[in-house]
Amino acid sequence: MDYDVIIIGAGPGGIYSAYELCKTRPDLKVAVFEAGQELHKRHCPIDGDRITKCIGCSSCSIMSGFGGAGAFSDGKYNITNDFGGTLYEHIGRTKAIELMKYVDSINLENGGEGCKLYSTAGTSLKKTCMQNKLRLLEASVRHLGTDINYIVLDNLYNRMKDTVDFHFMTGIEELEVIDGGYRVSYAGGSATCRQCIVSVGRSGSKWMEGVCDRLGIASKSNRVDIGVRVELPAVIFSNLTDELYESKIVYRTEKFEDNVRTFCMNPHGIVVTENTNGIITVNGHSYEARDKQTDNTNFALLVAKHFSEPFKDSNGYGESIARLSNMLGGGVIVQRFGDLVRGRRSNEKRIAEGTVHPTLNATPGDLSLVLPKRILDGIIEMIYALDKIAPGTANDDTLLYGVEVKFYNMEVTVDENLETQYPGLYIIGDGSGVTHSLSHASASGVYVARRILAQSEV
């Protein structure tokens, strides 16, 4: 075999797998194949001046490359089993938390020291939420910020680069089971290994589906989260963000009894676009450095939809809504909340005259022409509910960007070791459908690496 272990994907799962392997057994031959660029070459061409819209790069630097989609996603590591995936169902709640804390310690050792750890423990905001039909989820969160997260990733890469073989801009075209191991094929060559870790993230969902089909690995449909990104003055949400930084709040709508939740809160942050398989959606970032912060806070409001019979393609449903937004707005649409509830589209004049200065150059429009009524009604209900604990949320000038879609990979059938029915073939991270966050994906990588290391000692 060319390698002892091949890792497909250099996102959080792949990185922490490789780190644990080379730290404990530097003699092992380990390779990482990544479809995107190395970290310092990842750069989105959108500069807000010369280039204002996504130009469809062959490899989206926001979504792919060393660090995965998490490289520029604010660096929030949530230590909790309440959200972020179902890793605990495979490895146990205690082990999952233990590994998330271990990943946190690695981050602190590699540039994250000094970054604050926030916690919901003992907060009075939990009671305030309950009094207003909202539920605050339990979590501790270490906020690195996009800037410090970059430093941590760079330090991890520098620690591994002389021990691990990294192959960038090398997408794997085929994964085969061979005698004694596995073969990965890519443009211009192939490589073999005894054990293989697949960690392709959400952007590798279609590739993962193909692998499961060819190898007969069972899977089941996962959910898709659809909604908008809210942007408002940071001071409006400061009572929550100053204490908790990110608050995961769930609201059950009165009209349809759907769950709407806040997601990816970015105090003093910016709204950005991302390209997933050619579909332009919206996201948010924030920075630790004061000079990079803005006067706005942004967060997503998402409604989860899970389909079974006769329609099972949850991601396809989300893609169709995102494509409609792209068709009407040429990308992301932005609308004032006041315009939305009045049933009129926003225009450049009304947004310019508003009190919230947008941090993303999006197309003014009408989200009611894009989002299904049930989802839109839920989002509006949630905004009015949040207004009770953060007065000003439902102001006319609050901006809504659409659409935000969180695609989840189908949930691949793996055992308690995150191993498929093929010995030595592991599927981890968000590409497995088991994890949905930086902390859970990273923890899954460490877990599988330790499993491989334990086997090598036998």
**Strands side by side in the biggest sheet:** 5-13-14-17-12-20-18-19
Q: What fraction of the residues are assigned to beta strands by DSSP?
A: 25-35%
Termini, distance in Å?
A: 19 Å
Number of strands: 22
Proportion of helical residues: 25-40%
Point out poorly predicted stretches: none
**Average pLDDT for all residues:** 93
Description:
The chain is α+β, with helices and mostly antiparallel strands. Helix content is 31%, strand content 26%. It contains twelve helices and 22 strands. The strands form five sheets. It has an eight-stranded mixed β-sheet with strand order 5-13-14-17-12-20-18-19. Strands 1, 2, 7, 8, 9, 10 and 22 form a seven-stranded mixed β-sheet that branches. A three-stranded antiparallel β-sheet has the order 3-6-4. Strand 15 and strand 16 form a beta hairpin. It is globular and about 65 Å long. The two termini are 19 Å apart.
Secondary structure topology:
Elements (H helix, E strand, L loop, with lengths): L2 E6 L3 H13 L5 E4 L42 E4 L8 H4 L1 H20 L4 E3 L5 H7 L2 E3 L3 E4 L1 H16 L4 E3 L4 E7 L2 E6 L2 E10 L6 H11 L3 E2 L3 E10 L4 H7 L4 E4 L6 E8 L3 E7 L2 E7 L10 E10 L8 H16 L3 E4 H6 L5 H6 L9 E2 L8 H17 L9 E9 L3 E2 L12 E3 L10 H19 L2
Parallel strand pairs: 1-2, 1-10, 2-7, 10-22, 18-19
Antiparallel strand pairs: 3-6, 4-6, 5-13, 8-9, 9-10, 11-21, 12-17, 12-20, 13-14, 14-17, 15-16, 18-20
